[in-house]
Amino acid sequence: MNLEISGGYEYQRKLVRKCIDYFILTQLGYPAKFDLTVKVKDLKTCYGYTEQVAYDHYKIVLDKSQIIKDFISTMMHEMVHVKQYLTNRWDGDGEEEACNLQRTLADNMWKDNWV
Ligand SMILES: [Zn+2]
């Protein structure tokens, strides 16, 4: 797995890393056979989005002006979209699943003392 995290504050980049590790551990399983580029920046119009940039290479962009809990929740939301790409399985636009899981995953990560 090639992982590149840029932009935002250092604590945000560290959180992104933890979210990715937690998501892979609990939702995907190792080894992670995909590349991921994460950019933290001012988005204004949304909290985040995910796109496929190449075969098995995904890019997540996160809005940096979110409080920690929302930031983690958004990152989990986007990781669900990555999983949807990887498994090629989603319903509709995939938003319902991502929205349903984001808070649970963020809360679990919090409870498991990953934050
Ligand atoms: Zn979404």
The CATH topology comes to Zincin-like
Largest sheet: 4 strands, mixed
Tell me the number of helical segments per DSSP (H or I, 4 or more residues long). Answer: 3
Give the domain tally: 1
CATH architecture: 2-Layer Sandwich
The percent of residues in helical segments reads 40-55%
What attributes does this structure have?
115 residues; alpha/beta; 4-stranded mixed sheet; 3 helices; 49% helix; globular
Commentary on this structure:
The chain is an alpha/beta fold. The longest helix is centred in the last third of the chain and has 20 residues. It contains three helices and four strands, in the order E-H-E-E-E-H-H. It has a four-stranded mixed β-sheet with strand order 1-2-4-3, covered by helices on one side. The radius of gyration is 13 Å and the shape is globular. It has one domain: Zincin-like, CATH 3.30.2010. Zinc ion binds next to helix 2 and helix 3. The site of zinc ion has 4 residues, from helix 2 and helix 3.
